[in-house]
Specification:
InterPro entries: DUF1272
Pfam family, one: DUF1272
CATH topology: Herpes Virus-1
Number of domains: 1
Organism: Sandarakinorhabdus cyanobacteriorum
Structural class: little secondary structure
Strand content: 5-15%
Number of helices: 2
CATH architecture: 2-Layer Sandwich
Helix content: 10-25%
Number of strands: 3
Protein name: DUF1272 domain-containing protein
Largest sheet: 3 strands, antiparallel
Shape: globular
CATH class: Alpha Beta
Order of helices and strands: EEHEH
Length: 75
């Protein structure tokens, strides 16, 4: 199951699990759409993989399986 990390690892902007805008690689590194389209040029700086839109988690699924609270920005 996706961890649904709460923030962009590059700029720290919030990435709510029930809203579009997050991008992830196959290792679940998480970035915002602005960083992905701009400085990262669609590539994960950690593994070099493609960054793709992260699926949403909403409603009952989000209530039952909440998103991670572990922030990754600045690590």
């Amino acid at each position: 199951m996706l961890a649904m990390r709460p923030d962009c690892e590059r700029c720290g902007v919030d990435l709510p699990p029930d809203q579009a805008g997050a991008r992830i690689c196959s290792f679940e590194c998480s970035f915002c759409a602005d960083c992905t389209a701009g400085p990262l040029a669609g590539r994960c700086p950690n593994c070099g993989g493609d960054l793709q839109p992260r699926p949403l988690r909403v409603g009952a699924a989000l209530a039952r399986f909440p998103a991670s609270l572990e922030r990754r920005h600045g690590r």
